[in-house]
Design a protein that fits this description.
By secondary structure, the protein is an alpha/beta fold. The protein has 22 helices and 23 strands. It folds into five domains: 84 residues; 104 residues, Beta-Lactamase; 136 residues, Alpha-Beta Plaits (2-Layer Sandwich), CATH 3.30.70; 209 residues, inorganic pyrophosphatase (n-terminal core) (Alpha-Beta Complex); 121 residues, Diaminopimelate Epimerase, Chain A, domain 1 (Roll). The longest helix is centred in the N-terminal third of the chain and has 48 residues.
Length: 683
């Protein structure tokens, strides 16, 4: 009704203005001629008559003007209503609860309801995306996609306060009459075309046979062609299902191209090609495994191919027998259940050793760092790199901030020798030493966040990475040279092999040989885990260089408290799904060992229990961090399990650090994860 009052007041202004002007004219005449003059009397009479005529006219004509305006408004309303009713765009008025107050013919047609029928259901019963709760927060105009049956619409929604229609400056208040105005624009064809364009986008893929040479060497020569033909047939048949173009590049390499619409098919199938090829057997002692890298490009197919090359590198760096899918910055992994096949050839070690020597020619000094809370393999490999660098005539320093119990016997053996006076430095000193003539070498770790001093990675112009852990989603991006060999038992094994391929043969001191031998010994659990031919050859080389087995064994004997903690881990163990051992160790606050030491030893011991395929042992540190140690005997890839908890490692040896997580919560999530991954066939 406020609108009616506004119209009346505007009509009154039309009458009031002439009257006020007449009164003003009368006042001016009186001021000029006086009230008794003849001119003043005439003016007063004329103005009075004029005012009387205006008032009579207003009283007689006002109802007619109002009636005319009402008729005009009604006609306009009818025209607008007819226009809205016949509008080719679905249009509806809703209340704030989502009930339809009024809708045009096209809206009724869209939802398939007779126009004469009154709509009693809420709007979300037709369009589930339109929850009435959304209407409360609408400011200005809200746009969103909605779906009805097989049609797609772009909904434009506006909140209108009826009390502000005639009062422009009035603010909406609680209790005002509010309606929701909604338009629906059919975008079905546009979305279909967008999907077709999306589906036609090309993905690039690379297939590498991980162990081609090793498998062929284990097979009779007459059967080489048979196995090759079977593998080729499996690959081509599998990729023909996704309408892919396949090109056989080399004996062990394939390139394929396919459209994006098939990527979900591959993901749902979980790339069964891996198992299909692995199950091929024509007398070969070693199963053949594949690595697949798939890349998507945002801009061009060239980008897709570059991403495919990065993806295949990641798949190989994680041990092979898996698929890496790189879409932009996101990388997804499939497979990787096996521990991989040890490479018998040392070509890669020779190439990397020579490349490292070439990089070193233009540098004056080398800073070496491993991971936080270093173990014997981290320190031993750092010592090996120290010896390699000094042999080539460059200065070398090892960054070490924390002298843990795990490496204290090794550290003490170096501290008592004046020859290594300035070998170990702190992170602070290392940061001050970095310049253009400094090389940074990272060993036994390939994740920036886990390095001893992450800041060094951004300061050094030349970064080299030597590691035996499988690559994760967090690689060291700016590495000039990266040598990651997941098949190696330890970083010490890798560095020992490199000694044999540099131009100047290093003369290893016994204390250095002890440190490197210790790294191999600890990481293989006394040569029981992840041990191959090259592991024993590296150990033999170190033994010839002066490593003393008895001396090393004495350095790493366990204390009585450590043995009790290990026994506690075994005592607390429980079986899950008949093959997973889950346990915990209550950390001793007075223990000199790092929190990871007792859990790792307990996890190793649990593998000796019958039917145990994998073990998971945890401990809660004083700082609130939960340390997890995972071990397997070869049937289960524990690295894939630990990656679900933002951890990593090897197929047989892995771990994770979980700040602020209790062991009860972890065990609950671990059980769910193991059950889920077993059902999926992921482990």
């Amino acid at each position: 009704m406020s609108g009616s009052r506004g119209v009346r007041s505007k009509i009154k202004y039309l009458i009031l203005v002439p009257i006020l002007l007449a009164v003003a004219l009368l006042a001016i005449c009186i001021m000029n001629f006086g009230i008794e003059s003849r001119e003043a009397v005439i003016t007063i009479v004329v103005v009075a008559v004029y005012i009387l005529v205006v008032i009579v006219a207003y009283l007689r004509l006002a109802p007619m003007v109002k009636a005319t305006m009402v008729d005009y408004s009604l006609e306009q309303g009818k025209v607008q209503k007819e226009l809205l009713h016949g509008l080719a765009v679905p249009y509806a008025l809703l209340d704030t609860d989502g009930k339809v107050l009024w809708a045009n013919a096209m809206f009724y047609k869209t939802i398939g309801v007779n126009e004469k029928k009154f709509l009693q259901r809420r709007i979300d019963s037709y369009f589930p995306e339109l929850d009435p709760a959304l209407f409360e927060d609408v400011e200005g105009e809200l746009k969103m996609d909605v779906r009805y049956n097989d049609r797609r619409f772009n909904a434009m929604i506006r909140r209108v306060d009826l009390s502000t229609v005639f009062e422009d400056n009035k603010q909406e208040k609680k209790g005002d009459d509010v309606v929701i105005v909604m338009y629906l624009f059919d975008v079905t064809n546009e979305r279909r075309l967008e999907k077709e364009a999306y589906d036609q986008k090309l993905f690039a893929g690379l297939v590498y046979i991980d162990n081609y040479d090793e498998v062929m060497n284990s097979l009779e020569e007459v059967k080489h062609s048979i196995l090759t033909a079977l593998v080729d047939r499996k690959i081509n048949m599998y990729l023909s299902n996704i309408d892919a173009i396949v090109k056989h590049l080399e004996n062990d390499k394939y390139l394929f191209v396919f459209r994006q619409k098939y990527i979900k098919t591959l993901q749902d199938d979980r790339f069964s090609l891996l198992d299909a090829v692995k199950n091929l057997n024509v007398g070969n002692e070693i199963p053949m495994t594949l690595s697949i890298g798939i890349g998507a490009g945002n801009e061009s197919f060239t980008d897709a191919f570059e991403n495919a090359k990065i993806a295949i590198g990641l798949a190989l760096g994680r041990g092979g027998d898996q698929v890496a899918l790189k879409n932009g910055e996101q990388v997804t992994y499939f497979g990787g259940k096996s521990a991989g096949t040890e490479k018998t050839t040392r070509v890669k070690a020779r190439v990397k050793a020579q490349a490292f020597e070439e990089l070193l020619e233009n540098k004056e000094r080398v800073i070496i760092m491993a991971h936080k809370r270093p173990d014997a393999d981290a320190f031993g490999s750092a010592v090996g790199i120290y010896r390699l660098v000094t042999t080539l005539g460059r200065k070398a320093f090892i960054v070490l901030d924390e002298d843990t119990e795990a490496i204290r016997p090794l550290i003490n053996s170096f501290k008592g020798n004046n020859f290594y006076g300035d070998m170990i430095i702190s992170s602070g000193r290392a940061l001050s030493m970095v310049d253009a003539n400094t090389m940074l070498v990272v060993c036994d770790v390939n994740r920036p966040s886990m390095t001893e001093c992450e800041e060094l990675l951004s300061l050094a112009s030349t970064v080299v990475v030597f590691d035996h852990h499988r690559q994760s989603h967090e690689p060291i991006e700016n590495a000039t040279l990266s040598y990651i060999e997941p098949f190696a038992s330890s970083a010490c094994e890798m560095i020992t092999e490199m000694f044999q391929y540099i131009s100047v043969k290093p003369k290893i001191r016994p204390v250095e040989a002890d440190a490197m031998y210790s790294g191999i010994l600890i990481d293989t659990d006394n040569f029981l885990n992840k041990t191959g031919v090259r592991t024993f050859e590296a150990a033999s080389y170190l033994r010839k260089s002066g490593a003393d087995i008895t001396r090393v064994r004495k350095m790493f004997r366990s204390s009585l408290e450590s043995m009790k903690e290990r026994a506690q881990g075994i005592s607390n163990a429980e079986m899950y799904m008949g093959c997973f051992a889950i346990s915990y160790v209550t950390a001793d606050p007075d223990s000199k060992d790092a929190p990871t030491v007792p859990v790792a030893k307990a996890a190793n011991e649990l593998l000796n229990v019958e039917n145990v395929k994998a073990s998971f042992v945890v401990t809660e540190a004083e700082n609130g961090t939960l340390y997890v140690s995972a071990r397997s005997i070869g049937d289960v890839n524990v690295q894939l399990v630990m990656e679900r908890f933002n951890g990593g490692g090897h197929a047989n040896v892995a771990g994770a650090q979980l700040p602020g997580v209790t062991k009860e919560d972890f065990f609950q999530e671990l059980r769910r994860t193991l059950k889920e991954m077993t059902a999926e066939g992921s482990i």
